[in-house]
């Protein structure tokens, strides 16, 4: 649970709107990718400093900041595009709940991108903040990995409708990319759940318990990420902000449907995991019970036999059986038959 | 859980609206059944290609596409009736959540038809997508089986009110057919639940546990199918789309009632299954406890007796009882009586 | 669960609005009781055919159909009063969810009357459908028993306000009669629950488990009956249908309060039953544990003693104690004291 | 559960609005306390008959009826103040759900007063019904105890704002008195819960289980009383009835806050009791397990030792050890050491 | 649970609005800190009496009362700023539910500040009440510790926007300070939960159970504090009170986001704790089961061996094996092998 640690303490006592980066500092420097495009043209510039975009050409400017440790750079961009201090604060505080802020001339969305770490088998989150205004969009990524590669490719290669649209569609496209990656994470988790399911149905071990608990935590984490995102996108479908065109709205509604579907899946998993845990417990206790039952039956068969041999180990002067020539063999045979009879009895009663 | 696998990965990175079929490819070719009808007349044409319908006659045209692997065919139909790309994408992505999309001049409904596979005892889903506009309706079925046979028969045989109505009523009739089939699936599941119930009350075995878990999964799946359909049909009863006539609305409300009834049943089952699982667990643990108790009582009777015979197996020089002429028989009789007394004691205490 | 079986299958493939009776066919013929009354006068006619009511006299006509197997009779009444086909279908499909349909000039209510079968100790349901229009009311009962006797008596004897009122008040009076009978059923169930409660607190047996499960099912069934009825009556309090007079509304609100109270009781019982089941399980496991503990303690006392007698059954040449004159008696006394000491120890530790 | 018995059966078949007292008949006669007051003056009259109040003086008249067995008296008051029959029926049916009825010129509130019976350690309920109109208020109490003593004192002593206000404020004051008594009951219950908590954490016994179950029932009962009262008071804060002055509304909102606070507390307790029950069960099973473990360990140590002594009790001709001079002592020492070793082993493994 | 004790009893019977302090009396005297500031100037005065503020200078006056035992002082302030009696009553009754009261010309907020007591490892609450009007704000703190130090510093040092704003912003700033402290408490609790988690996964002991129960209580308490605060702040974002400027609203919305985030965290913890408790129980029972299994296996191996040695302890005249020269050694060897075989068997069956 260590990574979920709140970093608010760092900021304790500072006035609201103070810009302090609270995420993990990645060693690589932060850098900006600027894509400027219009219907005819698209160009990409990469820099570690702020890039002054051209004034002419009716370009749509997409600043993609990767890595947040360079606070002055972010402040500069904030001034350039007149971003509200509280929004910038949310950008830097990487523990934000996904949300939509509806400014008069801009939209600000915070989301959590998910990826699945194959090594630790854990879901990783990365905060994505997007500030979209008329003619520009600034996206802030916590880590330097290239989340929006496919969108940039579509922009630079000029196929599809994306070059003809405004910043609202770009905002949608970025969010869609983030949500598409959720499906990959879900598939990975589903694989893990299926493996657990098979193991628990076949042969439950101690390890399954911890795995199920970890899965429960992952599901809890997913819900915490997805539920507020649903609310944010739902607001986006209904916003009357002039930035959002009607033709884009239908795409946002589609995105909303995807999130709902993901939520359904995750909620189903929660029920499924609870069912699995119950199944696991009952399977395990049944196993244990079976072992105990078999062991107890072994004891139960031998205890009367031990009594019998005890009888003939008594030292009474007058014990006629002891002097029968075949007494020993008779009693051994009798005990053998008794043992068999008890076994048969337990078998018939389905105790064995 | 294998069949629930998301196929979004296939589409990862493609722009939204890209048409890729994500369902299972059935070997049979896809084909179209076109029913064109008006109040006087009804005709059926079957083809594996798109069918150009007649311009005259004020026919209502129902294209019923069965099998979705022929993507170009679907694209052609999409162009012919001006269907939104996102709707077509939903048609081909056969893992859609049931929903209603309210376009200005058309209605688009996605639903999941259910059938019960007698062999695997599992509920099968098939995605049904219906796009209804003024004077036409296109239905897309994932599999080639004839889901809408009864509706087509009613159309061709000309009985009932269906030939006099417009595409909104046909849309209702198709959805009603889908929902009617839910009842069959519910009846099958109810039979299975009843069998489980009887077995668990009478004689619970290990197999019941897995069956209950499978049933829980089925119920979860049903809920995932029915809840969004309810929302979709509820929206349909309230839509102000010009396509939906007031005289149809009352039928849609009736359909809505049916879905609610199905939902009630399914929700009830969920509670019932939880109750059954608790009952199963407690029945099983009681059985196990009974076995252990009986075994323990056998041991408990013989352990004091074994002690007694041990006493007379001791080798002390001076043990008067050993030299009594009937000592052996006295002690054997005493132990017999002691055993009986213990049995009686346990019986009276209701331990046996 | 057999009686809850859906009969939709019978109708599979028929167009909506087809009239097929899906309830149990009672051997007695269906018959109609017509009560025609105005403020001065009230008359009762009984027939197995449709009764043509008088045109004059400003009578309010109440047709009470008991038994639904005579479908043509119901169709005839439907035509006579212009009842919607879907409403008639609901009348005949006796598995309807309680509901209110608000037609322009009429109200259609479906409810489930409850009765308690003393023999099977089960709650029986009977579908009641009421179609009320201006100047008439038709009630459809599934079974021939006289549910509305008290209302008819009040009408014929002319006491109370009922003769002065219109069909909306009669509708209320019939529903009130149905809901009043719920209280009787609740009282019966409460008795059963109290008996279970006492048994479980005093002396839980295996039978309680099944009884609790049956009660849970009954409660689930009640909820399924009462919740939608609450919604229906709630709509009735708020309907703007011209049929419902303001002076009646206050009575309907009172009816609504009664249903809410019943719901509260039933919901409380659900929690109470869950609590009882937990209590039952823990009581039972405690009993079992007590038995096992006592048995184990008996063994635990005798096992060391058996070891001791084993020691003196060894055949070593040199075992001085064996040759002591009172060795045997000393060792017997020692074992007796040891046994007492262990008993005392276990008692002091509260293990016994 | 006996006291929760519904008494609707008594009224089965009577038309709605029939006045039958369904509460417990207390031996004392019912009586009326009339307090008539205005800003200058306040007077109290006590009688067992209806009291005709003075016409002049602009008095506010508060009739406080204690005990409901005198039905004619109540009917007379009902006529005097034009109280709706259904309201009077609610007054007499002492199993009412708390509610607010908003008549055109009057407000009718039903609440349940709570008190804690120190002897039975149970919460007692008493139905309070209040009918407030312009210039008068009639309160109906089920039992003769003086619930509203403090309010009457404040009226007669003339301190505070109560004498200056109208019947809406008096209605508030009475409800506030009722709710204030809830806090006393809550404090008593809290004490009991705390005692249970301490016992369960320290030393759980069989009695705790029944106590927890009783507490659960009490909490369920409280919720059934408080939830509808919250709804009633919430309606009262929002009612547009001319009777309620704006200056009173703020007090009613304050009352509403108190009820919400009580509800929060009760809801918290429900969770807390569930947690306590889990804790109790696990504490108890842990204790039991500990006992069984210790007992089993004793057996496990002696069983191998018993085997060893059995070995030297065998009668083989050739058993060299038997003839060693110190064989007996060696083997005794060995067994002693083995026993110690096993003890040490179990201790190290933390099994003991 | 002692500290949660309601103190309403003290006030039983007093009219509403009576001012009685119900919190813990701290030994230190109550005192007031007055900060008067405008954009240019800020001054601080501390006194144990009421401070008459200057009339001129367009100062915003913030009275910060710490300690509530001086009731006359609070009454005087109430008169000075025309605070409603019920608000003052809420100030003194330190068990208030957080809430917002929207007076015509003022806002009244009650919140609970949280702090974490490192010694008792418990969350402490302190009631904060804030009454903000045009040009002034009065804050009431239950305890004398300096909760609002950072805000006062920002005011006196004049940095940031706070000096330019009105009382609505100050109200926000104070609430923000309170909520910021929640994060510290959450971090502390998270540490404790993490420790519990690690212990339970590695090596659960009896102490974890009590700790988990205590944590559950803390979480319940937190929820009781945070949920109503969320409602209050939510109302504050939507209030149309003239006091709240639009520029402040965005900050309040930010505050609201923080509370929602805290709520999410706390709700997640509740699920997590339930999961941990299940895990704890199953871990513990598994441990216990393992111990019992091993012990039972030891017994099960020795019981047949004991039977065998019993056989050769029998005193039959004719037992050939006894006279074999190496009979003893053969039988010992056989038993050794049998023991090994049983061990191997149990190992292979994974019972050991």
Describe this structure in words.
5 copies of one chain form a homopentamer. The first copy, chain A, is α+β, with helices and mostly antiparallel strands. The first copy, chain A, folds into 2 domains: 2-183 and 202-283, Beta Polymerase, domain 2, CATH 3.30.460; 289-348, Magnesium transport protein CorA, transmembrane region (Methane Monooxygenase Hydroxylase, Chain G, domain 1). Helices cover 53% and strands 16% of the residues of chain A. Chain A has 8 helices and 7 strands; from the N terminus they run βββααββββαααααα. In chain A, strands 2-1-3-7-6-5-4 form a 7-stranded mixed sheet, with helices on both faces. In chain A, α5 (206-238) runs antiparallel to α6 (246-311). Chain A is rod-shaped. At the A-B interface, α4 and α6 of A face α2, α5, α6, α7 and α8 of B.
Topology (SSEs and partners):
5 copies of one chain form a homopentamer.
Chain A: E1 31-37, E2 42-47, E3 60-66, H1 71-80, H2 85-92, E4 99-103, E5 106-117, E6 122-133, E7 136-141, H3 149-157, H4 167-202, H5 206-238, H6 246-311, H7 320-323, H8 327-348
Parallel strand pairs in A: 3-7
Antiparallel strand pairs in A: 1-2, 1-3, 4-5, 5-6, 6-7
Helix pairs in contact in A: 4-5, 4-6, 5-6, 6-8
Outline of chain A, from the CA principal axes? rod-shaped
Task: State the largest interface.
Answer: A-B, 59 and 62 residues
Average residue pLDDT of chain A: 86
Strand content of chain A: 15-25%
Task: Count every beta strand of chain A, where a strand is a DSSP E run of 2 or more residues.
Answer: 7
């Amino acid at each position: 649970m260590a990574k979920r640690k709140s970093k608010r303490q760092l900021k304790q006592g500072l006035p609201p709107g103070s810009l302090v980066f609270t995420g993990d500092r990645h060693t690589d420097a932060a850098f900006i990718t600027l894509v400027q495009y219009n219907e005819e043209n698209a160009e990409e510039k990469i820099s570690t400093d702020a890039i002054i975009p051209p004034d002419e050409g009716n370009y749509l400017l997409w600043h993609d900041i990767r890595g947040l440790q360079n606070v002055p750079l972010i402040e500069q961009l904030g001034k350039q595009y007149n971003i509200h201090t509280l929004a910038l604060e949310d950008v830097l505080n990487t523990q934000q709940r996904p949300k939509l802020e509806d400014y008069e001339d801009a939209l600000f969305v915070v989301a959590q991108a998910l990826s699945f770490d194959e090594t630790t088998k854990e879901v990783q989150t990365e905060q994505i903040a997007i500030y979209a205004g008329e003619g520009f969009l600034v996206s802030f990524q916590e880590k330097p990995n290239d989340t929006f590669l496919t969108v940039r490719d579509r922009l630079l290669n000029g196929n599809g409708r994306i070059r003809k649209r405004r910043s609202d569609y770009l905002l949608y496209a970025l969010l869609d990319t983030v949500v598409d990656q959720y499906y990959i994470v879900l598939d990975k988790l589903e694989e893990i759940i299926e493996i657990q399911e098979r193991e628990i149905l076949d042969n439950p071990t101690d390890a399954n318990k911890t795995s199920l608990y970890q899965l429960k935590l992952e599901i809890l984490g997913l819900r915490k990420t997805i539920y507020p995102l649903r609310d944010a996108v739902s607001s986006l479908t209904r916003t009357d902000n002039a930035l959002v065109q009607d033709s884009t709205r239908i795409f946002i509604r589609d995105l909303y449907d995807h999130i709902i579907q993901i939520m359904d899946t995750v909620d189903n998993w929660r029920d499924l995991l609870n069912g699995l845990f119950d199944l696991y417990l009952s399977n395990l206790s049944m196993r244990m019970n079976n072992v105990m039952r078999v062991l107890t039956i072994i004891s139960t068969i031998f205890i009367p036999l031990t009594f019998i041999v005890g009888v003939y180990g008594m030292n009474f002067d007058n014990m006629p059986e002891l002097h029968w020539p075949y007494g020993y063999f008779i009693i051994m045979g009798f005990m053998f038959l008794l043992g068999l009879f008890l076994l048969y009895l337990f078998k018939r009663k389905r105790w064995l």
